[in-house]
Amino acid sequence: MESNPTSPLHLDCNATTAASAEVVEAMLPWLGRAGANPSATHGAGREAARAVRRARASVAALVGASAPEIVFTSCGSESTVTAVRSAARARPGGSVVISAVEHSATKRAVEAEAGADRTVVVGVDAGGALDRDAVRRALDGDAALVSLILVNNETGVVSDLAGLGDACRAAGARLHIDAVQAPGKVPIDVGELGCDYLSLSAHKFHGPRGIGALYVREGAPLVPLVVGGPQEDERRAGTENVPGIVGMGVAADRAAARAASAEDQARIARQRDRLEAAVLAGCPGARVHGDRARRVANTANIGFDLADSGLDASALLAILHDEGIEVSAGSACNSHRTAPSPVLLGMGLDEAAASSALRFSLAHAGTPDAIDDAGIDRAAACVISAHRALMAI
User: Fold this and answer.
1) Which among 298, 303, 287 has a CA at the least distance from the CA of 354?
2) Count of Cβ atoms closer than 10 Å to residue 210 Cβ
3) What is the torsional sign of CA 356, 161, 19, 263?
4) pLDDT per residue over 304-354, tens digit each?
5) Annotated catalytic residue within 75, 168, 195, 333
6) Confidence (pTM)
7) What's the CA dihedral at 288, 294, 297, 303 to 10 degrees?
């Protein structure tokens, strides 16, 4: 979109994206269609079932799976909880291996199933790169599951997971991949990844909120989180969210095309670099967190020198939000202060630095949240102005 000096600028696309016009158009007929229950045997039900099948095929194509391996859920968190629960219960008493930079949905699911005594946390280096050797060493015991994030939600760092699926299978463990941040940014191929489970969430790639998907490799155990009816081949009960599923299918098609477009990836990387260069030049002491050569094109995590002033990222956020610049800190905030980011702590930063970072996540061209270079310049100018104001306190 063209930059308007008074309009909000959404640079928080890793939190959520707006559904595209194509997605909304595809969903609208199903929101008011009577009888559109895919389990029904009348004409409207059969039409709804066909729409669900088409969407399932699109989501499967996005990740290189077969359509029967896709289970629709309500969100990425549900997908992750289902995968963790299924693998952990298939090997009772086994350990669960995660990295130090996993999303809270994974951490809490693992805590609920395995507890602290059966959870093995492997480290990352200062750039956020996974310690692959530590993962392999953790498989020497009785591991039931390894659960790893593909694209980090805070830094955008892409994990090198090649070959770990084979190592997991050789040890009798399952591999779950949190790919929630990956669609539209990197190609996804479950065959190459060698995973048993993979989590997705539609609203992260310009689909609707309230719909997600879980890839389940044929033959992998699955314990339904929602029980009752026979929907989703008895893998998740409840009448299917037909509008959401249809919207996710359309969004999946578009995300696959964006991930494959070198031109689109280069464009958004250029905008990210433009933003970073301006902020680093205008804010003394600012630095980029995460390996800058191994991250997705849309994400920048920038740390600021605020601790000497007794401040953290929440102070910057308050000013930026008042200016209509929609960004986020690297972790959840309470009403007064920003908690240290567990991801940045896992990368070796101290608590002050891990509490003083902002995440900027941009939208791709042709999507509802996309902004032009003038918007990027406006955002950078607001960050610099806010930083200077805080340093003058």
Assistant:
1) 303
2) 16
3) positive
4) 998 777 889 999 999 999 999 999 996 443 334 568 999 999 999 999 999
5) 333
6) 0.95
7) -10
